[in-house]
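Hey,

Quick one before I head out. I ran the complex with adenosine monophosphate overnight. Inputs first:
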Amino acid sequence: MKALPQGSTIGILGGGQLGRFLVIAAHHLGYRSIVLDPDPHCPAGQVGGKLIVAAYDDQEALELLASRIAVATYEFENVSVASVERLQTLGVPVRPGLKALTVAQNRIQEKTLCLGLGIPTAPFAAVTEYADLIAALRHIGFPLMVKTTTGGYDGKGQRVVRDAKHVEAVWRELGAGSRPLIVEGWIDFAWEASIIVARDVNGGLQYFPLVENQHVDGILDVTVAPAQGGNALEEKAKEYAGALAVALELVGILAVEFFVTRDGRLLVNELAPRPHNSGHYTMEATRVSQYEEMVRAVVELPLADPNLLFPAAMVNLLGDLWLGRPGGPDFSQALAIPGSHLYLYGKSEPRPGRKMGHLTVVDNAGERAASAALRARRLMSVDDG
Ligand code: AMP
């Protein structure tokens, strides 16, 4: 393995918070970065890397980017496959790679890949016509989860159908056949989990710990590391994540989200070949962060073992906390909690559900870290007077 020379430039498609932390990690390791994002004020554009302001499919911008970088990566999976192909045609390797991107953009492809590898998922069916929805319903039964096959994130583009009365309304709400849908059986899970696997250019694998995630309205709310469930469950998660990384020909990191059933089985829900919200805690709590591990893979430096150093919990800080507080929340009490670390993403426009920042607390037990992180967030919403 021969790493890219120090000072080489990494192109990053997408300038959100994940891109921002990638830029910082790249700079720590002595690499430069150029971010492509349509927003001149994007979070990743504020931390010292260069920024090209353009749409992800702007051909001139892609050519300019390609002429200035040695390798490229992406911070979200909805960047178009055509843009990644264009960069490759212009001679730039893109990591984690085209196959990982193509599969992760499409919920049917994700689940079909899992099926082929013998990895369990929720029962599912592809839906393009109303008749498919009715057939899936007979086959899978209520309640059903109906999702857009591509483009959905943070609970967007998905509806639960609890009974026959609501089937037609959901069909209309999700575009009445104008875009492909997937129907999934509703999983009455006990809890949700995720794991991040890293794979280097020679196929070497490293695993971050299995963590527990709680979602509210489809958006990640709390991550606790390590997850409950013990070694056997974590080993199973590693087995599945490793097999997926290999099948996707991954060079980089992959987050795998799971439902944990009441009888202790793991069902894969989603794949993300990029840094993941549920991996923010790695900035404090593991030997290497998910961002540094991604950069190491991308520039062909050796991967590090991402062992857990101490338990941690992360809470997302959504725009709702800002609303009605013109100066923003007051963070001073939260930061007085021992072991707390605050990250704000530099987004000037708070909106409900928009991820504005996060807070991680490290402690000597996951549950203590979680209750401290939740308390810290409550303290941000206590108004003076
Ligand atoms: P997703 O966009 O697929 O990650 O879904 C967001 C969240 O919605 C998940 O983390 C779950 O909390 C919930 N969810 C999604 N699909 C299902 C399902 N088939 N059964 C039960 N809950 C689901």
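Residues 230-247 form the longest helix (18 residues).

Talk tomorrow,
K.
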